[in-house]
Design a protein that fits this description.
Structural class: alpha+beta
Strand content: 25-35%
Radius of gyration: 22 Å
Number of domains: 3
Shape: globular
Bound molecules: zinc ion
Distance between the termini: 58 Å
């Protein structure tokens, strides 16, 4: 029996047909279309992993300083999934090799060069991946497919976690990767460290029936956001708090608006901060927001008609207001609400 044949059938964790998040118009929300089967059981077997790594069919995604490798010879950058023998040079230089999962019958690994010397990385590319370049995924997310974005983001967030968890948080001893890079073990105190995901809530607050007017929704301008972007409010979940409580608290803290009827819409892994964004809708009948308490520059109610005049994210067309990034769940929440509100 071949090694690949040991892989069980079924959808694993990746079933893009049924589990992706769709935007208005049917497009798939970025970072929600992971098609790899993760094989959480098989990846605990070092022998099996070694066999996958040695296979000519396996694919390797190189990373360096949080950037993914792209082929740049075509019109727009495409992710570089290297095969043997080219991949071997990157694997040999990698600080961390992580098993990501299987695409069909092919194992996919991430090879993180971490923060190695730029000259060495340049030589490596010239020898084994000519025409390729390391690029920040955020810069090219508009030209990669949702499936590619999901894979690249997954590799990036795991590589970043390894780089930041080389030492045990309990005893300070060096930790070692295990289970294909999905756990780090401390040989000194025995503690097991797992990749950390920070839950954050993001919410569209609406007034479906304001006195004498059209439905409207609350958007804020965060000091962190570029240009004139107005987006849904968001924040991290506090310890000891339910998601719904986090939604209500964040909206109150940021805009002094009270909400009811909080309901879950969808989630999106957000690799750039290692977060899981949990999207909600909520209702408020409060009048004007008060932003004096928080880091918002502005917050106000908008009707769907007003939002149709918003410019695209950072398109530089000088619109008074701009929508959030197309690859964000904020955009999904806004587009869904606009479709519902006419
Ligand atoms: Zn320890």
């Amino acid at each position: 029996m071949s090694k690949v044949a040991r892989n069980p059938g079924g959808p694993g964790n990746g079933s893009p047909d049924s589990q992706t998040i769709n935007l208005a118009g049917g497009a798939v929300l970025h970072y929600t279309a992971m098609r790899l089967k993760r094989y959480g059981d098989l990846r605990q077997d070092p022998e099996w992993l070694q066999g996958q790594l040695a296979s000519d069919h396996s694919l390797v995604l190189p990373l360096w300083t949080d950037k993914n490798l792209f082929r740049t010879l075509g019109q727009s950058p495409a992710p570089a999934l290297l095969q043997m023998p080219d991949a071997a040079q990157f694997l040999a230089s990698a600080v961390e090799v992580i098993y990501l999962g299987h695409d069909g019958e092919r194992a996919v690994f991430a090879a993180d060069l971490a923060e190695q010397d730029r000259g060495h990385v340049k030589d490596l590319i010239e020898q084994s991946a000519p025409g390729c370049r390391f690029i920040d995924l955020r810069r090219v997310s508009a030209v990669v497919t949702p499936e590619q974005a999901s894979l690249l983001a997954y590799a990036r967030v795991l590589a970043s976690w390894h780089r930041n968890n080389g030492f045990c948080a309990r005893c300070g001893h060096r930790t070692q990767p295990q289970r294909g890079g999905h756990m780090r073990h401390c040989g000194q105190c025995g503690r097991e460290h797992f990749p950390r995901i920070d839950p954050a809530v993001i919410m569209l607050v609406e007034q479906p029936d304001p006195e004498g007017g059209q439905p409207r929704c609350l958007l804020g301008r965060h000091t962190r956001l570029p240009g004139r972007v107005y987006s849904t409010l968001a924040g991290y979940v506090d310890p000891g708090e339910t998601l719904e409580q986090a939604v209500a608290r964040e909206v109150w803290e940021e805009a002094r608006i009270r909400v009811t009827d909080i309901r879950y819409v969808a989630s999106q892994p957000w690799p750039f901060a290692g977060s899981l964004m949990l999207g909600f809708r909520a209702v408020s009948m409060d009048a004007e927001p008060d932003i004096s308490q928080d880091e918002l520059e502005d917050a106000r109610w908008f009707t769907a008609a007003e939002m149709r005049d918003f410019g695209e994210f950072e398109d530089g067309n000088g619109a008074e207001f701009e929508l959030p990034r197309q690859d964000s769940i904020a955009r999904l929440l806004i587009e869904q609400w606009m479709a519902d509100s006419g």
